[in-house]
Amino acid sequence: MTAYDVSSARDELLDPVISMRGISKSFGHIQALRGVDLDLYRGEVVALVGDNGAGKSTLVKILAGVHPQDSGTIAFDGENVSIPSPAGSQDLGIATVFQDLALCDNLDVVANLFLGRELGHGPLDEEAMEQRSWELLRQLGARVPSVRVAVATLSGGQRQTVAIARSLVGEPSVVMLDEPTAALGIAQTAEVLNLIELLRDRGLCVVLISHNMADVQAVADRVIVLRLGRVNGRFRAPEMSYEDIIASITGAMNLGDRKPDSGGAK
Ligand SMILES: Nc1ncnc2c1ncn2[C@@H]1O[C@H](COP(=O)(O)OP(=O)(O)OP(=O)(O)O)[C@@H](O)[C@H]1O
Ligand SMILES: [Mg+2]
What we know:
The chain is α/β, with parallel strands linked by helices and 266 residues long.
C-alpha cells in the first residue's frame, strides 16, 4: 500500500466509498430490490446474506454494471454515478468475482489474469504480464505451481485465487465476491478467507455474498441481511449473533424489532 498522510487515510476510512440510496429493481412483475440503502467503506468486509431470491446477486450486479437500477442513486466517493456497463464498473474501481468465476479453462494463468487488458501495444509483453502475474499471486500468498499451466489443471481453491487475482489487476477499491467458498473444501476455504482479510487489511472494501454463516462470522466486520428485496437486518462484529442473523434472514426478527447496530452506518 502506498504511504499517504494519516489525516487523508482517516478521511478515506470515514467516508463511504459507495453509497446506495433507495435502490429498487424489478424483473417483470418480480420486485428483486425495494428501496435498499447501503453504505460501503474501505478497509471493511461486508457480508451480504439472505435466503435464495432475497436480492443479493441483483444488488451486486447493479454495482457490477450488469443491470441498471430502476430507481435510487449510487454515489462513488461522494459523487453520483451511473454504472451502465461492466466496463463502467471496473473504471470506477469496482471488481466482481461472479460465482462461476468465468475463467478460460484452456488458457494459462497469465492469459486469464490479463484477458481483455493485455499489456503492450502490438505484440503482447508476455514477460511483463508473467512477472505481474507472479507478483499478484505472491501478494495473495497463492500456491500456484506455475503461471504457465492451464487453469483447468488447478484445484478449486487455486482457481478461486486466480479469479480474485484477476479482479485485482485493475487495482480496484471495492471487490465483490459471490459465494467464493461454495465449492471449496475446508483448507481451501480457509485460504480464501485469509485472502479476504488480506484485501481488507490492504484497505479494500470487500463485499462477500455467502450462505455459509461460519465464513461470514469468521471474516465479516458487518453483516447486511436482505429479505424479499429489502434490508431486514444490519449487524456489526463482534456483537452479532448467529441466532439474530438467522432470525433476520427468515423474518422471525425484523429490522424494527431490535436496536439498530451500534455504529450507525448504513
Ligand atoms: N435476470 C433476471 N430475470 C428475471 N428475474 C430475475 C433475474 N435475476 C434475478 N431475478 C429474480 O429476482 C429475485 C432476486 O434474485 P437474486 O438472484 O438477486 O437473489 P439472491 O439473493 O442472489 O439468491 P441466491 O441466494 O439464490 O443466489 C429472484 O426472485 C429472482 O428470481
Ligand atoms: Mg445469488
